[in-house]
Inverse folding.
């Protein structure tokens, strides 16, 4: 179902569906010269020599860390403009607890307090990982009280970052429910993961689904009865939640990861990769993933299959979660 991960701070995750793409990180980091000019706030500010090292992804270690006190450092600041005339800022940190959108999971929202002479508040409503540098950029705006601060001075400053706890947990639940759906589907004889193969997903609160290569309607005994098929899946989901399985996250050697994932890994995970793939396991079904998850299936309360669609040999199963 989702993104990627790595073992150590320098992590890179490119995600697709609920699957993860492992990439090599430059552990040493690197430095390039970048010049960014800030022309708002009545002054022009220029930043040079921004350090381009990957951001440490703290959320991979613990979904339930909502605040990181005075540990992260600002390593980049940009003023950007969208397709219209709206101006916004992006801040990169050397470590973050905020999940950058990817793998169908939306990003976190939150705020950063930069500890200059005064505390500068920056509110972000989206987060993204820059593919080339593996830096995480938080998009948003400075609080009005902070507008007169010298933006050029925030780089290198320590800061405190907080993510919105409610949004973080909602996203972790929606995403974890996608894993649970994989198990509920694969538990139906004839719809195992080598027959109905998970390919991608969306785990937004209002638009959640997983797509599988294969046609679920061809299942013997179902005869294209979608209601009957959805009922089977919902019964399995209910059992899985009652069973209260631990949702386990671990970094495994390639062969162990392969075994955990039913004997096959996506081709983009190389046996020669420097860093071991991060495997998330629910009810004995592993999946390479870099998303945030709840600790156990019972935290999901109720997951319901709401729709089923088959198009061009791909089955899309939509679901909802009682949040
Ligand atoms: Zn996941």
């Amino acid at each position: 179902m989702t993104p990627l991960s790595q073992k150590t701070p320098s992590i890179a995750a490119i995600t697709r569906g609920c699957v993860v793409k492992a990439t090599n990180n430059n552990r040493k980091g690197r430095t390039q010269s970048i010049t960014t000019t800030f022309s708002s706030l009545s002054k022009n500010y220029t930043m040079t020599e921004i350090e381009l090292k990957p951001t440490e992804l703290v959320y991979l270690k613990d979904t339930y860390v909502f605040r990181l006190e005075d540990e992260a450092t600002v390593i980049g600041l940009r003023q950007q403009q969208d397709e219209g005339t709206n101006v916004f800022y992006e801040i990169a940190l050397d470590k973050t607890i905020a999940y950058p959108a990817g793998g169908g999971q939306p990003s976190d929202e939150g705020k950063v307090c930069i500890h200059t002479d005064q505390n500068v508040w920056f509110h972000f409503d989206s987060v993204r990982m820059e593919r080339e540098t593996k830096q995480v950029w938080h998009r948003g705006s400075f609080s009005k009280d902070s507008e007169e601060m010298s933006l050029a001075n925030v780089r290198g400053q320590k800061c405190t970052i907080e993510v919105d706890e409610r949004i973080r947990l909602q996203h972790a639940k929606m995403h974890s429910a996608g894993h649970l759906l994989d198990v509920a589907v694969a538990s139906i004889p004839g719809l195992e993961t080598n027959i109905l193969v998970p390919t991608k997903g969306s785990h937004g609160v209002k638009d959640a689904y997983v797509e599988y290569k294969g046609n679920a309607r061809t299942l013997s005994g179902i005869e294209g009865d979608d209601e009957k098929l959805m009922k089977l899946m919902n019964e399995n989901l209910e059992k899985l939640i009652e069973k209260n399985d631990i949702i386990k996250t671990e970094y495994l050697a390639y062969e162990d990861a392969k075994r955990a994932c039913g004997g096959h890994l996506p081709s983009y995970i190389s046996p020669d990769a420097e860093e071991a793939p991060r495997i998330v396991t629910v009810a004995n079904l592993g999946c390479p993933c870099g998303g945030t998850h709840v600790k156990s299936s019972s935290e999901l309360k109720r997951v319901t299959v709401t729709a089923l669609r088959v198009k061009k040999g791909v089955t899309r199963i939509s679901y909802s979660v009682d949040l």
